Amino acid sequence: MVVADDTLLTEPAAQPLAGCDGHCVVLVNSTRDAAALRHITHHDGRLLVADFTALALDLTQTLVGLSTAMGIAAAHMVGLSLEDSLALLNTELGEVQLNQA
């Protein structure tokens, strides 16, 4: 599961963790740490937390790359190689006319 905005974790209309159990790995874009997010979600599975917004802004000076950064992390979670992930990243960056990785 990938959650691009931690405010969605407590949003009743979104319910991104509905159906997730202790075997579900959740990747969250957040400035908060995993302990704080676990406290508000009560998710007992693995929480992987990083500030992908800051990463995208630092590397590209735009949020256009946010979904790309999260996509690469998700690809790694499911076992895609770094080479394959970077090839896909470069394709997407080229499509939005940003520098390649």
Characteristics of this structure?
101 residues, 43% helix, 4 helices, three-stranded parallel beta sheet, 2 domains, mainly alpha
Structural features, described:
By secondary structure, the chain is mainly alpha-helical. The protein has two domains: 1-50, no CATH class; 53-101, no CATH class. The chain contains four helices and three strands. It has helices at residues 34-41, 52-60, 66-77, 82-95; strands at residues 2-3, 26-29, 47-50. The protein has a three-stranded parallel sheet with strand order 1-2-3, with helices on both faces. α3 packs antiparallel against α4. It is globular. The mean pLDDT is 87.
Q: In the residues, how many domains can be counted?
A: 2
Order of helices and strands: EEHEHHH
The biggest sheet amounts to: 3 strands, parallel
| Head-to-tail CA distance between termini | 25 Å
- Unreliable runs: none
Record field, number of beta strands: 3
Number of helices in the DSSP assignment: 4
Give average pLDDT, whole number. 87
Radius of gyration: 14 Å
In the sheet with the most strands, the strands line up as 1-2-3
Kindly name the structural category: mainly alpha
Approximately how much beta-strand content do the residues carry? 5-15%
* Percent helix range: 40-55%
Shape: globular
